Amino acid sequence: MSMKILLLGECSREHAIAEAIARSTHKVTLYALMQHMNPGIRKCCKDTGGEVVLGNFLDPEKVVQVVKDKGIDLVVIGPEEPLFRGVVDAVEEKLGVPCIGPRRGPAQIEQSKAFMRYIMWKYKIPGRLRFRTFRDVAEALEYIKETGESVAIKPARQVGGKGVKIVADVQAYLRDVRTRVKEVHVTRLYEEMAKYTDIEDKILIEEKVEGVEYTLQCFTDGEHVLPLPLVQDYKHAFEFSIGPETGGMGSIMDKTYTLPFITPEEYEKSVEIVRQLVHAVKKELGIEYKGIIAGQMMLTTLWGPTIIECYARFGDPEGVNVLSVLETDIVDIFEAILSKSLPKIKLSFRPCAVVVKAVAPVGYPLNKKLAQGHVLDIDVKKIEEKGCRIYYGSVHEEDGVIRTVGSRAVEIAGFGDSIPEAAEKVNSVLRYVTARDWRVFYRLDIGQEETLKKMIEQANIIRSVYKSRNVEELKIYEWIPGKGLRVIEY
Ligand code: GLY
Fold this sequence. Notes:
Blueprint: E1 2-8, H1 12-22, E2 27-34, H2 39-47, E3 52-54, H3 60-70, E4 74-77, H4 81-84, H5 87-95, E5 99-100, H6 104-111, H7 113-122, E6 131-134, H8 137-146, E7 151-155, E8 165-167, H9 175-193, E9 203-207, E10 212-220, E11 225-227, E12 232-238, E13 242-253, H10 264-285, E14 291-300, E15 304-311, H11 318-324, H12 330-338, E16 353-361, E17 375-378, H13 380-385, E18 389-392, E19 395-398, E20 401-404, E21 410-416, H14 419-429, E22 433-435, E23 440-441, H15 449-469, E24 475-480, E25 484-489
Parallel strand pairs: 1-2, 1-4, 2-3, 4-5
Antiparallel strand pairs: 6-9, 7-8, 7-9, 10-11, 10-14, 12-13, 13-16, 14-15, 16-21, 16-23, 17-20, 17-22, 18-21, 19-20, 24-25
Helix pairs in contact: 1-2, 1-11, 3-5, 8-9
The structure holds glycine (GLY).
Glycine binds next to strand 13.
């Protein structure tokens, strides 16, 4: 039976989704709704007999109209913002057309850090952190004065991974300076958050944890969770993880389900956390979560696997790692999500390590205006000769000319027997993406032997600490000078 699928979104992750849909053995016609003309997604649509519609995919009315006009049977949502704006609710309620992506309520798992943490505590899910949320800046400032603890100050809403400040409580004599830093950051963040009126909490302050981060992406039908191989994302703009945070400058995946620094037991614990979260969403809201859910995990001395954030979608670039080698027919997976029969799906992947690296125009991520409008020259043939694949991102093509839009322009995936081998392949082709009269940047260190070794050493230290606790219910005793002993129960 033939099926018309509409994909929402326009970046490299959506290009990878489009490619997976286009290679389905089902008779699919792919349409895409996006604001910039992504040449990779356009080619996938064309290859299946479909087309791109340019328009605002964040607007539920616009999406409903395209679904009606094109006679769409299934909508697949790539990024998070359409979920937050109720696109799935509108399409499913008004037209009865199913979507791969959660409704607005369950999507709060990503949209609101407060919601995610609240259900973690209410349903006693392992890996929770102490936190407080604030709607009012004065209250947050008051709290900061009282607490001398190491904290992470975060926007309470998902705002593209920006605005996080970690302040460590190390030298006691610097306490006043630290308090001032926290106050300045809270005040600035509060001002920035004023424009987001869709959730009430503005700021979240939680205990600081450190460790090795990794992403666990899963398909879910609301009851069952089908986990994918782990991926590690590198957020900082420049080599050795310095510079401002970006959406992700690259990501690594091994040919096993786990990563060289995460044990199979830690992988299973991470899956269990995500599974419990999916079930907690249903208990809390009475609405099932369906689509893709990803835990941004951290191996911490406190819990071992700990969940830091949740995505209601594939990560970008993490989604490119898994989708570029997914052998299972993605349309079968979509059908199993909708019919709640995910356990019948056997996932299979091309057996290789995958390293993805982003190429971004200079200016990204702090000055997107500076990064916009530059003509790119891309030697696709040279990239493919090395066995790598290019995924177009934040670009717009018109009359055969590709220009930057301001964010990560392309992502290149390389494949190999090991992570360093795959990284080497990508590194050798990154120079085939250049900007005319401008510069682009990328990270060579991601996936290299040295970077991996450091990660393994760090994970080993963390593991020896959390294993020594080995308890179900955590309790921490804290001595507060002048006040005495305080017991913190998790
Ligand atoms: N790579 C991080 C994200 O997808 O938000």
